[in-house]
Amino acid sequence: MNRIIAAALVVAAACAAAALPGPAWAGAPSPAGAYAYIGYPNDGQVVAANKPFRVWFGLRFMGVAPKGVKYPNTGHHHLLIDTDLPPLDQEIPSDRHHLHFGAGETETMIQLPPGKHTLQLLMGDDMHVPHTPPVYSKKITVIAR
Predict the structure, then answer these.
(1) Mean pLDDT of the 22-38 span
(2) Is domain 27-144 given the CATH code 2.60.40.10 in the classification?
């Protein structure tokens, strides 16, 4: 009788654990080890304030494809400026803090007002949703003077 109760408890615990919410990711699968990075500017670099400067995007173990193109292990870049990562189970916002590069661009020109700013990349799938697991870069800081 004790074995039956113990087995029932193990099954109940496994079912309860399976019902617990895990990471809230909804996007297309990403390949193991994939990561994004900002190739330029470098962390801590000083850039000219109120003048365009180039930001180029790097990506490893994954390919770039435009929005709407559903192909395994691909996505497109989103540049996050002065903000944290958005919810990873929803479409990435599109505003002045979340720039979309849905045509598959791998670089852009931006300008920033004077001050300290953060930049970070986040990959989105064919529908602008972060991958599962999400693929993003380290957040870097630039100083606009």
Answers:
(1) 85
(2) yes
